[in-house]
Write a structure and sequence with these properties.
CATH superfamily: Fido-like domain
Strand content: under 5%
Shape: globular
Radius of gyration: 18 Å
Low-confidence stretches: 261-265
Oligomer: single chain
Helix content: 55-70%
Number of domains: 1
Mean pLDDT: 94
CATH topology: Fic-like fold
Order of helices and strands: HHHHHEEEEHHHHH
Structural class: mainly alpha
Length: 265
Amino acid sequence: MKSIESYIAEYEALELHKVVDYDKFNQFAITAHSTQIEGATLTLEETSLLIDEGITPKGKPLEHSLMVRDHHQALLLAIKFGLDRDAITQDSICQLNAAVLKSTGQKYNTALGIVDASKGELRRGSVLVQNRYFPAYNKLPDLLKKLTEDLNDRMDKNLSQREKIDLSYSAHFNLVSIHPHYDGNGRTSRLLMNQLQTRFGLPISCVFKEDKKEYYEALEASRLEGTITPFKEFMDYQYKKHLSSEIKRYKSYKKKGGMGMSFLY
């Protein structure tokens, strides 16, 4: 079976970043898939028109357009953090979450006061998602401190490409399993993965909307089994799916004499 490293090498050899607007439309695709996983109904074409030209799709809830627009800005922030090689902190994670929920974040009244999700504030209560309770709110600061210290320590080591990929997956899995916010945890965790991938000079990956069920199953399998292996195997599948799709599409474009690439997949 072809390794993920082989896919990355073939992808990088194509120098797709030199294709006009390739990175931009790749970011649109990642935004479309990530927000559709969370319930947004904008297609990739509608996502592209909204972000690129400010055209709001007709017949779709305004909240979905706001979710898409905010996710794109949050993705740009994650990429900036990665390029700047910033340390990962509780504050930077909360900044990503605040960007994700800038226009759609709600205010939650709790016994300990109001939590404004649009500001990336940590939850102050229990959460139940798909029959699973996540860590108690009073444990969140310590869990985030442990996570960020571990990530920063490992990022600075001389890692192989495989180890860098695995670390980005681990960041994704561990943050979404801590579930530090009332909303936007999945999107924020995927963005943290993209931040690390950018820092390591890797292509950024996504989770495909059509694989949402398998995504949740992989997360739960890793939690139940006490090993991240099921999740890493799923994410490898997603990474290969994304890279192979891009490689195939570019080769098809070259065969046609460079008459234009379709970014709507």
